Amino acid sequence: MKRLAYLQQQNPHWREEADLTRYFVDAAHASIAPAVCSTPLLAWIAYGEASLWRMLCWMGLFWLVEWRLILVIRQCRQHDTHPLSVYQYYPAVRDCLLASSLLWGGCIWFMAPVQPDPAYQMLLLLWVAGIFALLCIMMAACRDIHVLFFAAFWAFPVFSLLNGGKRLELLALLGVSIYLLSQWRFVRGFQQTLFDTVQLKHANQNMMDKLVEMHVQATMQRVSLEENRQALQMAVAEGERLLECDALTGCFNQRALRRQLDKYAADSIASGSSWSLSILDLDHFKQVNDTFGHQAGDAVLEQLVQKVSQLLPDGLQMFRYGGEEFVVLAPAMQEAELAACLDGIRQQLAVSRWEALPASWQQTISAGVVACQPGEQVNHCLQQADLALYAAKHRGRNRICLASDLVDVPLKRFSHSS
Predict the structure, then answer these.
(1) What is the pLDDT of residues 111-130, one digit of tens each?
(2) SS3 for the chain, per residue?
(3) Which of 169, 324, 325, 335 is catalytic?
(4) Class of domain 254-405
(5) Which of 44, 172, 214, 249 could form a disulfide with 305 if both were Cys (CB 3.0 to 4.6 A apart)?
């Protein structure tokens, strides 16, 4: 870690340099097979012209260097998990390639003809120049070995031409010098191009990482906003439910009743069909409060809501109208159907056990049922149901009375607690 921190401090572009080093190692690995295969071809060209023992000596040294290069590159690839590993094996790879370059340049001496042959020497020189061009491409990524590479490759060819060359060889030397200058300029420019390409790749990668991070953050924020929206929606729904719920019994209150009455009235006008509602009341509820206390009365109201809610068919709703009076809405039932349904519930309640009351106490209910016609005012429907309830009380309680069965309005009105 200390070495990495030092590397970051000394070279701010160490990541780009590491990528170029990897490129150099990959290129060196790719060059092994062509180099090993080309040496027999070069020996075939030199066969009959050069000394056999020199050729065998050169090929042995060259293959030994290439074998060493294979081992170093294999180790480098096995441990290439961190940029520092790249720098750890880079010197060994570089040394092998410099040794290989020295052998390529020295092949002019190893493959030198036994008898002077200018045409063969020029062919050998062109071969070396071609190999040099390929190695320049391969080594362009690492600028710190350019001078060593040029010197190692061309040291012996230039020395050989200067020392024993004639006019043709000197002209070739002049061409080689011009060629070296052009290659030098190409290698320097190509290395910078590679560096800029790698730097652009890192910049693009950093941008993609930031975009991915922004996308992840935006997704998390969107999920959080959606969760907050759902929580707020649930809180609003819960608030509306609490506003429309009776605090004691838990059933819907008068606020919810008014909203549902208006809705069913509008639906009735749209469909042209009638619907029904009922007002039910606990019989002798005042005696419950006076005899057993208001807490017992509250418990009876809670149990009433629980029992009736369990017995009501699906689609029917129960609302607390006030005191011990409750309203049941049946948007899909006729008057007689609702009356029959409530009469069954009435019979079950008459034989039910009430926890807050003695076992011998029989708690009954009375109810009035009315059919609501399309366009009829809901207040008028409630008034008719209330009159039917009074009629049920007048006729002895513990019964269901239909508003359509009323001939005249009862002269005597009973209190709601009676």
Answers:
(1) 777 666 667 777 777 777 77
(2) CHHHHHHHHHCCCHHHHHHHHHHHHHHHHHHHHHHHHHHHHHHHHHCCCECHHHHHHHHHHHHHHHHHHHHHHHHHHHCCCCHHHHHHHHHHHHHHHHHHHHHHHHHHHHCCECCCCHHHHHHHHHHHHHHHHHHHHHHCCCHHHHHHHHHHHHHHHHHHHHHHCCHHHHHHHHHHHHHHHHHHHHHHHHHHHHHHHHHHHHHHHHHHHHHHHHHHHHHHHHHHHHHHHHHHHHHHHHHHHHHCECCCCCCECHHHHHHHHHHHHHHHHHHCCCEEEEEEEECCHHHHHHHHCHHHHHHHHHHHHHHHHHHCCCCCEEEEEECCEEEEEECCCCHHHHHHHHHHHHHHHHCCCCCCCCCCCCCCEEEEEEEECCCCCHHHHHHHHHHHHHHHHHCCCCCEEEHHHCCCCCCCCCCCCC
(3) 324
(4) alpha beta
(5) 249
